Amino acid sequence: MTHERPTSQVLLRYALFQLPGTALLVGALVLAGLWVEIPLWLSALIVGLWVVKEIVLFPLVWRAYDVRCSGGAHTMLGVRGKAEERLDPRGYVRLRGELWQAELAEGAAPVEAGAEVVVLEVKGLVVIVRHP
After folding, report:
1. How far does the chain reach from its first CA to its final CA, in angstroms?
2. Is the pTM above the cut of 0.90?
3. What are the DSSP E strand ranges found in 1-132?
4. Using 50, 70 and 90 to split pLDDT, how confident is the model at 120?
5. Angle 40-61/8-35 helices, nearest 10 degrees?
6. Cβ neighbours around 31 below 10 Å, total
7. CA 15 to each of CA 25, 49, 59, 90: distance values in angstroms, whole numbers, following the listed order
8. For domain 73-130, is the CATH number 2.40.50.140?
9. Domain ranges within the chain, ordered by starting residue
10. What is the C-alpha to C-alpha distance for residues 63 and 2, in angstroms, rounded to an integer?
11. Which helix (H) or strand (E) holds 61?
């Protein structure tokens, strides 16, 4: 699921995640100012460039802060794939181009290599499948 535009909630989440780094930069500038004289305009320029960097990066990374785009195990439910080897009761299946360790659902008949499977459940890194 892709989204065309970030929401204000995504923008807020991004800003809050960037706040500690910006605060650390300001703190480092203050500490450096105790040892070396740093003009106020230079400190302001450095912080300003830091903020500009965050603004420039936002369009490139905002999807990582959007909970609507996050993929979880539930996104695998119902996905169809192909058995790479005989599943009786375990083996490997190819789902969305990736190789997954699979286990047959309870009571499901063995599945031959090359047969289509559908994901019913995800347990850790193992998908529970059956022949459709």
Report:
1. 24
2. no
3. 80-83, 90-95, 98-104, 116-123, 126-130
4. very high
5. 150
6. 9
7. 15, 15, 13, 45
8. yes
9. 8-65, 73-130
10. 8
11. helix 40-61
Place of tokens 């936002």: 58
Q: How many helices (H) and strands (E) does the chain have?
A: 2, 5
DSSP E strand boundaries for 36-115: 80-83, 90-95, 98-104
Please report the sign of the dihedral spanned by the C-alpha atoms of residue 108, residue 110, residue 116, residue 118.
positive
Residue whose pair of structure tokens reads 């809050």 in the numeric block: 16
**CB-count exposure of residue 39 (10 Å: 0-12, 13-18, 19+):** exposed
Token duo for residue 81: 């794939």
The region that residue 114 occupies, defined by phi over 0 for left and psi between -120 and 50 for alpha, beta otherwise, is left
Return the SS3 of 18: helix
Token pair listed for 39: 């003009």
For residue range 14-63, list pLDDT tens digits in order: 999 999 999 999 999 999 999 999 999 999 999 999 999 999 999 998 88
Residue type at 1 in one-letter notation: M
Residue pair 117/83 in contact (Cβ under 8 Å)? The answer is: yes
